[in-house]
Amino acid sequence: MLRDIRYALRSLFRDRGFATTVALTLAVCVAANTAIFAIVHSVLLQPLPVPEANSILLLSNEYPKAGVGVSHNSAAGDYYDHLAGVPALADQAMFQEGHRTIDVNGTPEQLTSMAVTPSIFPLLRVNPAHGRPFNAGEGEIGNEQKVIISDAFWHQMFAGDVSAIGKQLRVGGRPFTVVGIMPPGFVFMDPDTRVWVPLAFTAEMKKQHHNNNWQHIGRLKPGTSIEQVKTQVAAVNRANDEKYPEMREILHSAGYFTKVEPLQRMLVEDIESSLYFLWAGAALLLIIGALNIANLAFARLASRRKEMATRLALGASRAQLARQLLTENILVTTAGGVAGILLGAGALKLMATSWLSRLPRASEVQIDLPVILVSLAMAVAIGVLIGLLPLAGVWRTQLASVLREGGRGSSAGKNTGRLRQVLVGAEIGLAFVLLMGAGLLLASFQKLLTVDPGFRSNGVLTVSTSLPRARYKEDASTRAFLNRSLEVVRRLPGVTAAGATTTIPFGSDHSDSVVLAEGYVRKPGESMISPSRIIISPGYFEAMGTALVKGRYFRDSDTDTSQKVIIVDEQLAQRFWPNQDPIGRRMFNPNDAAELEKAGPKTVFLTIVGVVRSVRLQDMAGSGNSAGAYYFPFEQSPQNGFTLAIRTAGDPTTIAKTVRSGIAALDPELALYEIKTMEEWTALSLASRKTSMMLALTFAVVALFLAAIGLYGVLAYLVTQRRREIGIRIALGSTASRVVKLVVAEGLVLTAVGLGAGIVGVAAVSRLMANQVYGVRPLDPLVMAAVGGVIALIAVGACALPAWRAVRVDPISVLGE
């Protein structure tokens, strides 16, 4: 083996061009696969970083016919019902992610937090490294002012001093006692979570169903299955049907069911198909690279046929030659694999600054031992493959015929040439598939850029805050603070409009609620709808540039003592009053089951005063709530958490500091967060699609380059093999144009065959592509024509140099050989 390795190194050093080309080709292909597989492995394949994570399930209430999309949330009443009615779960817990204002060394900061039932730490089988978890009593109203902090926050606040246990921490304006410190590296859901506080429910909340504001998880008992949990949950729902018959028909028409799925599945379901799509693209690139390397290996073997025959004549066995070929190829591909891993690590770092950071479990993505082993295995496998492919030629080598060859070619050479043509056709076909995927993503992204989101993003700054309930207990104080804030902001130089909202487009805070129209009669089996429920102040629509279709915007006169009013978007207006004027009509939010059927004596009616353009709230593709949206005036429904939208005449970022200082003058203990422009929010909403497009385009360009190199190599080999024929043609009077046509025609035939195979491949995966694109068809003729044109153009370019070499063949020197 050592002798083979030494000889292989000498041989590869002599053929430095071949070795360098193979190593670089494989390095690029392995780098793409290493980076994408590292993400797939960490995000999709690795279990959550808690003990026996695969047994943790998420239970959520879903209403697919009500237009709300997938909620992932549940109600407190369901949680308490399942505690008693689902024995297949050993532990159950609820939690709610959010932000809280925390006094950090004298400065208020908005930190990521999680409210949890005390049962969550036993369920996760993780205890604080210092102190204790919450006890059951701390999950009751009045006893919940305790806090557990992360290891990072412990070092930030208390410099890692264990005496932090028992100290006070101001959370949301109230003193909380530190009872525990989590272990270093502990992550559950959001890695940025700094504090955990008890989640306490009132007696009334414990009986409420379909008030879905929390996430509900459970851990399977040993020996039980997810199917048993689903059966028991369905039984609880049937019991509630009997207990609350007035809700039965309504829930049935909404398609209500409780979804039970692994928690990890919920975390990744929005990104799963995109990651697998990119991984498939990287795998295709690797295959194309392998085919290209195989082509190079065949060309090298053809040039070494006399060397191989000579070694056989001197006593070497065919097995020794085969082993030598394998050793050479494995050495060079292993080197390419190592280089690819290093390049992949660099690519991963570049992605970490943008798209990767927005993925679930992004903090866990790394190139670990399994990723390295898989990448090396790919490189070695390609080395073995391209070492084995030519072995049949070595075994069939006839010494006498090879040693008698004088450059006239042979049947072995012709067979090798045909095989190389097949490989190039396959490269072109796979490159076509990759280019089509990239072209569709590009066309889709361009479509999204032309979508009207329902607002004008340029010139708008957003600033979010949450008023501590300990200091803003009354609605009047909340209203007063918002009004003072807007007065301060509107007086700033360059500000042309400002308003507040509870739901900024493309942000994380979204709420939906059933709303009914007075006099509207549902058809049999028709579901109620639950549109997005948004609370805004006067000036918000003007700041966002959301157009008024009919009626008016909210005014300062829409107060808590005036008529209750509402604004609806075009989609909701069309749902209840198609081709009619909704201005002056009334709507209401049902307060109980009886009001779901018709208004009652206690119904609070809301008069429609305006209709506005529909707004894309969650992403530019319009996913999320399909039932539309309705808006309340802030004065009539004040909220402690809100976002200011500020329109400026110039660059909105220039007023960020001034806004911060102006609000700090009103309340120095208030923390501001998510200070972004609307253009940044829009870019973030498109980030995953943009990155997918850029990665796919990169893969496609590399694949196209490799296919062009492969086509060039085959044609160059063809010219070499047919030099005598070309020389005779020129001697007999063939013109240069005819010689060029001879070579180019060969290349275009190969290209046409590859394109045909590629079209078949695209048709085979068109359903998978349909889930990744917006506004274009998987077999879009314009994209297909553009991709085919690009490949044909590149193919003509690849034919140019071999054709030029064919024209320059000297018939006298060739015939004299």
Give a short overview.
β6 (168-171) and β7 (174-181) form a beta hairpin. By secondary structure, the chain is of the alpha+beta class.
Q: What's the layout of helices and strands?
A:
Layout: H1 2-14, H2 16-45, E1 56-62, H3 76-85, E2 89-104, E3 107-116, H4 120-124, E4 130-131, E5 146-149, H5 151-158, E6 168-171, E7 174-181, E8 195-198, E9 215-220, H6 226-243, H7 248-253, E10 257-262, H8 263-303, H9 305-313, H10 318-352, H11 369-388, H12 391-395, H13 399-404, H14 411-449, E11 460-466, H15 475-490, E12 495-501, E13 516-517, E14 532-536, H16 540-544, E15 548-551, E16 565-569, H17 570-576, E17 586-588, E18 606-612, E19 629-633, E20 641-648, H18 656-666, E21 672-677, H19 678-721, H20 723-731, H21 736-764, H22 766-770, H23 781-807, H24 811-815
Parallel strand pairs: 3-8, 5-7, 14-19, 16-18
Antiparallel strand pairs: 1-9, 1-10, 2-3, 2-9, 4-7, 5-8, 6-7, 11-20, 11-21, 12-20, 13-17, 15-18, 16-19, 17-18
Descriptive notes:
The protein is of the alpha+beta class and 817 residues long. The two termini are 41 Å apart. α14 (411-449) packs antiparallel against α19 (678-721) and α14 runs antiparallel to α23. The protein contains 24 helices and 21 strands. The strands form three sheets. Strands 1, 2, 3, 4, 5, 6, 7, 8, 9 and 10 form a ten-stranded mixed β-sheet that branches. Helix content is 49%, strand content 15%.
Key terms:
7-stranded mixed sheet; 21 strands; elongated; alpha+beta; single chain; 24 helices; 817 residues
Largest sheet: 10 strands, mixed
- Radius of gyration from the alpha-carbon trace, in angstroms: 34 Å
Helix amount, in percent? Answer: 40-55%
What's the tally of helices?
A: 24
The computed structural class is: alpha+beta
What global shape is seen? elongated
Number of strands: 21
Low-confidence stretches: 406-412
Terminal CA distance reads: 41 Å
- How much β-strand is present in the residues? 15-25%
Mean pLDDT: 87
